[in-house]
Amino acid sequence: MRTTPDALMLFTAGLGTRMGALTANRPKPLIEVGGRALIDHALAQVEGAGIGWVVANLHYLPEQIIAHLSLYRDIRFSAETETLLETGGGLRKALPLLGDGPVFTLNTDAVWTGANPLTELRDAWDADRMDGLMLLVPTARASGHSGPGDFDRDADGRLTRGRSFVYTGAQIVATTGLAAIPAQVFSLNLLWDRMLADGRLFGLVHDGGWCDVGRPESIPVAEALLREAAGV
Fold first, then answer.
1. I need a labelling partner for 119 at 20 to 30 A (CA). Which of 47, 90, 125, 172 fits?
2. Cβ neighbours of 159 (radius 10 Å)
3. Do the beta carbons of residue 184 and residue 89 sit within 8 Å?
4. 204 has which bridge partners?
5. Per-residue pLDDT tens over the stretch 139-193
6. Domain residues of the chain, as ranges?
7. Mapping DSSP to helix (H, G, I), strand (E, B) and coil, where does residue 71 land?
8. pLDDT value for 174
9. Positive or negative CA dihedral for 30, 31, 33, 39?
10. Tens of pLDDT, residues 29-67
11. CA 23 to CA 17: how far, in whole Å?
12. Whole-model pTM?
């Protein structure tokens, strides 16, 4: 079993209901921000980190995701045909394609500036201490994000539930604990809660900007962030 991750789960199956009319006829990962689909922003990070292989889950308008990703190198697909399994159930279903050992997971509803988020995670990963390593931003600079933060972080990087930091949707996670969760449809929060109880969920603060693009009003915020980073 590998201890350093080289496979990534790309979450592309969601309904994108918070995007309203923008997702009536297309999946959220194909919404454009700054002239590029959200999924292309995510894959730029994947390619920049040199990750070995990628699995994307499918549910809403899957043929559009497949057609778009045909432009890239070989990407494997995990179909959630009848039921949307949420993040935890979707990851567990994709495990035969991802292989043994820890994996990256990446949401497709954000844009990044600064350091490559996946490289940051890989450089800080310590399988002896960690079952999960999340990339975070301080709540005060979580662009496009509404609501409180998700976690607090101690001096060693160990996490507890709190409000100081927002989870960015990028992480490395050990997947062995998924087998013990009886539900078919479940959020990764169930797995994180087990890691928190064991003191094995850690957080790393992103060296750069991040914008949550979960709502239409976040699109111009994300585009402004990208222009600022490009010096435009």
1. 90
2. 25
3. yes
4. 135
5. 999 999 988 999 999 999 999 999 999 999 999 999 999 999 999 999 999 999 9
6. 7-230
7. coil
8. 98
9. negative
10. 999 999 999 999 999 999 999 998 999 999 999 999 999
11. 7
12. 0.97
Report d(CA 9, CA 217) in Å as an integer. 27
Q: What is the spatial distance between Cα 99 and Cα 5, in angstroms, rounded to a whole number?
A: 10
- CA nearest neighbour of 106 among 163, 167, 184, 193: 167
Nearest CA to 13 among 103, 90, 111? 90
Residue with tokens 């920049």: 48
DSSP type of residue 91: H
Structure-block tokens of residue 199: 């003191």
CA 137 to chain centre: 14
Residue 232: what pLDDT? 76
Whether CATH 3.30.70.120 fits 7-230: no
Length of the chain: 232
What are the tokens at 145?
């994000």
Confirm if 39 and 231 have CB atoms less than 8 A apart. no
